[in-house]
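Regression test case RT-17, inverse folding.

Input:
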């Protein structure tokens, strides 16, 4: 019998609200755990070892899904990577289940196939699935490292893993939805790692401790990987001396133009050259840290030239964003326009928030032409 539309919509709204509360970009601890899990996987496959996955029900589907992305491909073309989901051999699964009990269906396979350097990814939304716990125990006996994916009820399980990713929800459906998102993020990081040189990266020009700040050489390598993945790199730049709603509006608009947003920041000397000795108010390292704290900013790059022309020529982003005050036919000239057009990029214009600029904001703060 068909439900009333109001009841249907209530279910949809409740599910969407619950999904919003467990967004990955609002979970700093989970974000750090994903990064550490990715490091373990990259270390494993770089060493020529395999990643084994196990789970039950929907988690088994996730295990199979992620393993397939490794063996086939995620987005970019690369060599196949060794991975397998332990439930896909139905003969082994049913034989072990029949002879030793369902608790041993994964553990026995781990004992049979695991080699030093391999990695186990164990998925259980509750953190209490007996066959998953047995698989983790077997992995420990074989000297394997373990990544565990679970939910809020599985925090004890997560702590027992080398890296535990506990989604902060007790709703199984929401946990599984985030698990597959985490799986895709891990695939994306592994893909990106295949296109990055094993040599020590050139960090020339980096001024802060933020992991989001990238040197020009690192951005060139990033751009290469994004091209292989057919993803769009967006660039915008400025001084960003005092962040205000105008900056936030522009950065949101720039982020919407592509997949990855890089924000260029003028160094202190270049700011003084065209803004005067009183600027910048804050040193470039602090301005980088402030921008890096924004979730919509993917990477930050410091440049010393008066305009970003040289950076654009080297990095070659797909989209170069400028404020609407540069828009034709009446806007200010764009010195770097010819460079962007020459390498095949395009220029996009960002809306301005009336009355909100760094100059007017500083004037108000310092009492120069406004309230002190």
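Golden output:
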């Amino acid at each position: 019998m068909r439900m009333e539309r109001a009841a249907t919509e209530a279910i949809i709204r409740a599910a969407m609200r619950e999904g919003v509360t467990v967004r990955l970009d609002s979970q700093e601890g989970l974000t750090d755990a994903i990064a550490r899990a990715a490091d373990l996987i990259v270390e494993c496959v770089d060493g020529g070892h395999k990643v084994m996955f196990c789970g039950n029900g929907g988690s088994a589907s996730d295990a199979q899904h992620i393993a397939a992305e490794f063996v086939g491909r995620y987005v970019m073309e690369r060599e196949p990577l060794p991975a397998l989901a332990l439930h896909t051999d139905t003969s082994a699964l049913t034989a072990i289940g029949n002879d030793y009990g369902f608790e041993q269906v994964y553990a026995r396979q781990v004992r049979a196939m695991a080699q030093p350097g391999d990695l186990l990814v164990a998925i259980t939304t509750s953190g209490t699935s007996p066959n998953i716990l047995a698989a983790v125990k077997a992995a420990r006996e074989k000297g394997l490292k373990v990544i565990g994916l679970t939910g809020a009820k599985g925090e004890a399980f997560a702590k027992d893993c080398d890296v535990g990713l506990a989604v902060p929800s007790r709703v199984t459906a929401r946990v599984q939805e985030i698990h597959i998102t985490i799986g895709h993020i891990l695939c994306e990081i592994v893909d990106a790692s295949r296109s990055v040189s094993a040599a020590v990266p050139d960090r020339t020009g980096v001024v802060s401790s933020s992991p989001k700040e990238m040197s020009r050489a690192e951005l060139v390598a990033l751009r290469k990987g994004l091209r292989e993945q057919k993803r769009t790199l967006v660039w915008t730049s400025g001084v960003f001396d005092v962040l205000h709603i105008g900056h936030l509006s522009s950065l949101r608009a720039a982020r919407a133009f592509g997949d990855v947003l890089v924000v260029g920041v003028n160094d202190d000397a270049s700011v003084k050259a065209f803004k005067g000795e009183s600027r910048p108010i804050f040193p470039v390292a602090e301005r980088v840290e402030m921008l890096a704290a924004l979730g919509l900013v993917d990477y930050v790059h410091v440049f010393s030239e008066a305009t970003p022309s040289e950076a654009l020529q080297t990095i070659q982003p797909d989209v170069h964003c400028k404020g609407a005050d540069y828009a034709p036919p009446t806007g200010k000239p764009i010195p770097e326009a010819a460079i962007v057009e020459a390498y095949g990029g395009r220029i996009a214009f960002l809306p301005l928030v009336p009355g909100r600029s760094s100059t007017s904001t500083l004037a108000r703060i310092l009492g120069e032409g406004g309230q002190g």
